[in-house]
Amino acid sequence: MSLWRMTVMFAMIIGATRGFGLAVAKTYVAELAMVANFGLDPGQAKKATVELGNDAIAVKFDVTQKDNIEAAAMRALHLISEA
Question: In what order do the strands lie in the sheet with 34-39?
């Protein structure tokens, strides 16, 4: 039984391509949220997204490029709205 219940239905997770980030993404998907999987390597992001299932999308994103933050978030929202 879950000790918490999520009310947010959409999460943008940076680094959800493997390790801890992927584990967090799996938790969100298990709680019925849509997940935008932000990663630098598009191939790895797509691989992780396939593992997460239909409730996830992959978005290429480099956290070192501050100018790309808003564009990546808008791209994720656009892709989620089409899903």
Answer: 10-14, 34-39, 56-60
Looking at the chain, the whole-number percentage of residues with pLDDT higher than 70 is 89
Pick the CATH number of 10-82 from 3.50.50.60, 3.20.20.70, 3.40.50.720, 3.40.50.1110: 3.40.50.720
Which tokens sit at 73? 């978030």
Q: Which of 29, 74, 31, 35 is nearest to 58 (CA)?
A: 35
**Confidence at residue 20, expressed as pLDDT on a 0 to 100 scale:** 94
Interatomic CA distance for residues 38 and 17, integer angstroms: 8
∠ CA 69-81-12, rounded to 5°? 35
What is the pTM for the complete model shown?
A: 0.77
